[in-house]
Specification:
Layout lengths: L11 H20 L5 H7 L10 H24 L2 H19 L4 H29 L2 H15 L1 H16 L3 H21 L14 H13 L1 H31 L6 H26 L1 H25 L6 H27 L6 H25 L6 H28 L1
């Protein structure tokens, strides 16, 4: 099925844009805050600069734990009610963070933002899977990523602009506006994609069985773990990007520009992937991209070491542009490949896959971020090691699929 609901609701372009907006709450909540981390940390009494990274990591922790809930709920009650619940929890988290007077309260608010944003993320993937499958789903997810990528391109600049006229608390006001617009648009234009006869009772046993099915299905499990490795490297970048670009390289207010340029590489790759995946397939593109990330990172680590961990900025930018291009290829393919054998349990499968991969990536990304020592070496090493780990896992998964065929 290629339309939302028998000719009703948004067409494909509007659907892609709406899904991109809903899933962008996560990126907006992270990237718009990056320029504000030093000011936020100073206001709330953060002593260790690396502790400010918890504003990012805590949101991802909430995202990981929230994902295990929304999928089963959406399979039982339809896609729309859990979407509204997620948006409401996100809004409450924004309000708590906005009015926080100490760092623990801030982190609780960030956790709630992540927990709430898990709803739009998981339900959106399930809605796509309700209507598309296989390479067609990967193509739609690539288009979603291509639209979505404008958020990390523009969000740091938005945060920097708000800081020029107000304090960091006003940034949370922008999150509230986007969440409100998303809720109204979704409510007015998006029909339910899961008919009543296809819904299943909410049972903890179903979640347990879905976890087992993901883990015993070699393709789903392998690509879920690979997603954890890849997103772990990316979260490591998000944790340390502000410190590397704004402090180590002294970019100051130019940080949003450089951050946005790097994000464009992901968007361009996602758009290219939407066309390439139909000819080459998800597995081949994923394997090539992971191998490229590892092969680029290993020699650059040696180059960076020769400069005591701080090579010229232009070399860092060229390296990151190349790496992020391949990240863009992966983002559109990994989740679609993991979901491919699990269309019969799309909602709960999206939850389990998202929960396992995000929880894994939070741990790995936090390790990379906490290792920041004023140089790019921890980040480059993280990209190389996790790229190799992801490639090995995917090769294992695809070998099992080939043997079973």
């Amino acid at each position: 099925m290629n339309e939302s609901s028998a000719g009703q609701g948004p067409g494909q372009r509007e659907f892609v844009t709406l899904v991109a907006l809903l899933t962008s709450l996560i990126a907006l909540s992270i990237d718009a805050m990056l320029p504000a981390l030093p000011e936020l940390g100073a206001d709330l009494g953060v002593r260790n600069p690396n502790d400010s990274q918890l504003v990012v990591a805590t949101l991802f922790l909430g995202l990981a734990l929230g994902q295990i809930l929304y999928g089963p709920l959406s399979d039982s009650f339809g896609r729309k009610p859990p979407m509204y619940v997620g948006l409401l929890v996100f809004i409450l988290g924004c309000l708590l963070s906005m009015f926080a007077t100490n760092y623990p309260v801030m982190l609780i608010g960030r956790f709630l933002q992540g927990f709430g944003a898990a709803g739009p993320r998981i339900v959106s993937i399930a809605m796509v899977r309700d209507q598309y499958q296989g390479r067609a789903m990967a193509r739609i997810m690539s288009f979603v990523t291509a639209v979505f990528i404008m958020v990390p391109v523009l969000s740091p600049a938005l945060g920097q602009l708000i800081l020029a006229v107000a304090d960091w608390r006003a940034i949370f006001g922008s999150f509230l506006i986007v969440a409100g617009v998303s809720a109204v648009w979704f409510g007015l234009r998006q029909p339910e994609t899961l008919p009543a006869q296809s819904r299943r009772p909410f049972q903890l046993g179903r979640i347990t069985r879905a976890v087992k099915e993901v883990c015993v299905n070699r393709v789903s499990f392998g690509y879920t773990v690979a997603t954890g490795f890849v997103f772990g490297a990316f979260i490591g970048y998000l944790n340390s990007a502000q410190q590397i670009l704004q402090q180590t390289y002294g970019l100051g207010v130019k940080f949003p520009l450089y951050f946005g340029v790097l994000a464009l590489a992901i968007g361009g790759a996602s758009f290219a992937n939407a066309h390439l995946v139909l000819r080459l397939g998800m597995g081949k593109l994923s394997r090539a991209s992971m191998a490229s990330i590892a092969l680029i990172s290993m020699p650059f680590f040696l180059v960076a070491s020769a400069f005591d961990g701080t090579p010229p900025l232009w070399t860092v930018m060229v390296y990151l542009l190349a790496v992020f291009f391949f990240f863009g290829i992966l983002f559109g393919n990994l989740s679609a490949r993991a979901m491919e054998p699990l269309g019969h349990i799309a909602g709960v499968a999206a939850s389990v896959i998202g929960f396992l991969s995000t929880l894994m990536s939070v741990v790995l990304g936090t390790v990379i971020g906490r290792a920041f020592n004023g140089t790019v070496l921890p980040l480059v090493a993280g990209f190389g090691v996790l790229g190799l780990a992801a490639l090995s896992t995917v090769l294992w998964a695809d070998k099992g699929a080939a043997e079973a065929a």
